[in-house]
Design goal:
START-like_dom_sf; about 130 residues; Orotate phosphoribosyltransferase; glycosyltransferase; seven-stranded antiparallel beta sheet; about 45% strand; glycosyltransferase activity; transferase
Length: about 130
């Protein structure tokens, strides 16, 4: 598995950050502009990545105020999972997004840049939305 990760400090209690990330309805706010046809519930999100693929993601595990595991609910172009990790950090919270993807050499060359960009974008946007 190839991993892509980014983290940010947010001046909010860990409970508030975890509650926001735990509801997939909120994740639309974290997505870049090339995401469309978004529909979601608290546990599942469906969307299309422009010129790429349709994805259906679901929350498969929640560990209160620590971790949210999101995995494909339907066949994805490659095996992947997203893991949001939250931890109390003094007066605020550290939030970290880790995306693990099973990429062959060709996919790794094509998808590594966009996946890291997505991770960085989501984390930076989380800081703006909750900042």
């Amino acid at each position: 598995m190839t991993t892509f990760e980014s983290s940010v400090a947010i001046a909010k209690p860990v409970e508030e950050v975890f509650a926001f990330l735990s509801d997939l309805n909120n994740h639309q706010q974290l997505m870049p502009e090339n995401i469309y046809n978004w529909s979601s519930s608290a546990d599942e999100a469906r969307f299309t990545i422009q010129n790429m693929a349709k994805l259906v993601l679901k929350v498969t595990e929640r560990i209160q105020n620590q971790e949210i595991l999101i995995e494909p609910a339907e066949q994805a172009p490659f095996a992947l999972n997203m893991r949001w990790l939250t931890a109390a950090d003094g007066a605020g919270t550290t939030a970290k997004l880790v995306v693990a993807a099973e990429l062959n050499m060709m996919l790794k060359m094509m998808a590594s840049g966009p996946l890291q960009k997505l991770v960085d974008h989501q984390v930076a946007t989380l800081a703006k939305v909750l900042g």
